[in-house]
Each structure stands twice: as C-alpha cells, then as structure tokens.
Amino acid sequence: MAEAQNSPTLGSARAGGPPPVGSTTAGSIAVAAESTVVSRMSAPPSFDVADFPVPHGREEEWRFTPLERLRGLHDGTAVATGDGVKVDVQAPAGVTVESVGRDDARLGRAGTPVDRVAAQAYTAFEQASVVTVPKETVLTEPIRIAVHGQGGTAFGHQVIELGAFAEAVVVIDHTGDAVLAANVDYLLGDGAKLTVVSVQDWDDKAVHIAQHNALVGRDASLKSVVVTFGGDVVRLHPRVEYAGPGGEAELFGLYFTDAAQHQEHRLLVTHNAPHCKSNVVYKGALQGDDAHAVWIGDVLIEAAAEGTDTYEMNRNLVLTDGARVDSVPNLEIETGEIVGAGHASATGRFDDEQLFYLMARGIPEQEARRLVVRGFFAELVQQIGVADIEERLLAKIDEELEASVA
Predict the structure, then answer these.
(1) 199: closest CA among 220, 229, 222?
(2) pTM as predicted
(3) How far is residue 314's CA from residue 284's CA, in Å, rounded to a whole number?
(4) How would you label 141-172 residue by residue, b for 16+ Cβ within 10 Å and e otherwise?
(5) For labelling alongside 129, which of 7, 75, 122, 285 has CA 20 to 30 A away?
C-alpha cells in the first residue's frame, strides 16, 4: 500500500512516494505561508448566492465534482418542489424541536456558506428546523432525524444546539430519492458533548450536497461520524471552528463507493483558539467502473491557536479495477507553539496475501473478502455507538460485497 505521511515541525516537511495506478494522492504542509485553504475558495464566505460565480469545473473547489450531474443545484436552475423530502424528528423528553424562519438568530452562527450551492440552500429554504438540548441535560436515548426523499428537489437548514454541559447523540438518516442541498449547524455550549451520526443511504439516483458547520465551545467535545453509501452524487463539506480554548473535535468517516457513484468529502478544521484538539480519520472502499471517491482534508492552525494538537488521516481500499480515488490532505501552521500536527493518506488495492492466508485456513473466498473489508472499517464502525446503525452498516457492507460478485 502506497502512503504519503507528514509529521511537521516548524520549517520542515516530508512526503512519501507516489500512489498506485488508478488513484491520486497528494498532500502539502504550509508553515507561516499564504493560505492554501483560502485559495481553494473562489469567493469569500457569504449567505448571498449572488456573491458566488456559477462554477464551471475549473475552480479548485469544484475540479473533482461532476457538475453536469448536480441537477441544477450549482447554477440556480434547480427549483424546490413539494415532493422534495419529508423530515421527521424523534426526540426524548426535554428536547425542544422548532420550525423557524430565516431571521432566527441561531441560523448561521456555526458558519457561513463557502460555495454557491450552500448559499443557494440558505436563500431557498422555507423553514429551518432547530433542535435544542437544554444546558446540563444528559440524554440517554439518541435524537433521530429521518430525512426521506420523495423524488423531488429540496433546500434545507438544520440546527442542533446543545446548552452548556449538555450531552446528546444525534442520528441524521438520509434515505429515498431526492435532489437536496442543505446546511447543517452544530452549536456546542461550554463543556457540552455531542456525537452526531450522519448516514447517507440514498437511492441510486439521489443527489445530496451539504455543508456541515460546527462551533465547539470552551472545553466542549464533538464527535462526528459520516457514513456514505447511496446516491448518484454526494458532496459533503464538514467544517469545524472553536469558540473557546480546550475544545475537542473528532471527525470520522466511512464510505463505500460503487460503480458510477461520485462521493466527495471536503473537510476543514480551523484551529482559531488555543489548546484545542482535532482528530480526523476517514476510510473508504471502492468497486466498479467509474466509482470515484474524493477526500479533501484541510487543517488550518492560526497564530492564536497555541497548544494545538491535530492529526488527519485518509485510507482507501480499491477492490476492483476501474475505480478512482483523489485524496488531498493539507496542513497549514501559523504558530510554532503547538503540541503536534500531522497528516497521512494511503490508497491501495485489495490485499491478496490476506485473502490467501484466510482461504488457506478453509475460509471460502467470499467470506474471506468480507472479513478483510470488515476489518478495514472496524475501528470506524465502533465509533458510531448506536447499535442498530452499526448493525445496519455492517449489513450494508456485506450487501455491497455480494453485489460485486453477483
């Protein structure tokens, strides 16, 4: 397995060898230099769609995305229909669920749209959903948000807010068929703990473009688990900033990209407060002709963020010929007073030696393949912490593998 790995100190960087055929892997470290992260965006963040030019695919932030398959979300031709998506929220007692207008002060606090689709989603939704967990409330059951596509086009905005020292698990489950552009905001009060699991289990023709914004309070902790299986095109943009020192963010992702699917995850963690931590681990498996996975991992450590401890990693397992991976980690450091910072990216083919080892011990080939892939994803599945979602995920992995030999 080819790997590019970097563990920077001030003024130094190193990178590994080239990726295998059929994939591309690149990484960079910038120390006290012009921001690569800023150069990825064609325009400054804005809530106004008019501030963003229509992308043509030559822009850095759009060069991997198949614009012709976005069904008009990128150029303003997509129009919301009444049969877009149905949203159902099941929340334990004590949790407040509201529908609010665009003038609600909580909307946009966690982050501003950074591309035209996110701005279009913000200007086009009719009602936003706000789920609030009061301060010092510790939930023993998860909040479940079911987003079911009904065949149409929709724009949405979801806010999850935790008061100081509150603790909650939130599952956002996307199913059915839809063309959906959305913004999702996570607001964590001081000392709060939020685990959010976002599942993209769409039907084959669905298109889902979303920006996830998290604002992590002082000594608060966020664990985000993104699981992507279905859809024709899924493009997610998780972003994290800190509202005070001592915050922690763990961003985990698991994706299984099948023939002709495009799955793109573009992450940005901005360390803008001192003594905060972040850890990013995304893993993907790909199979089939024209399966395309994109992972962009950006970490920015600003000058004020002394004592930062951060690491990001992306690993990809290519199961068949005809699949492509683009994996680009970037790390920018504006202060030398950090605890640690590094990134790694690796893409490789299915390990025939592991398969042979298992088959030599009497395990049938298909079962051996299943065990190898399950082992590859095991650490991320364990991070979910919701038993029925974990079981469903493992069943989905088995289903995908069975389809590959059918």
Answers:
(1) 229
(2) 0.89
(3) 8
(4) ebbbbbbebeebbbbbbbbbbbbbbbbbbbbb
(5) 75
Could you report the per-residue pLDDT of 159-217, keeping only the tens digit for each? 999 999 999 999 999 999 999 999 999 999 999 999 999 999 999 999 999 999 999 99
Q: How far is CA 220 from the centre of its chain?
A: 20
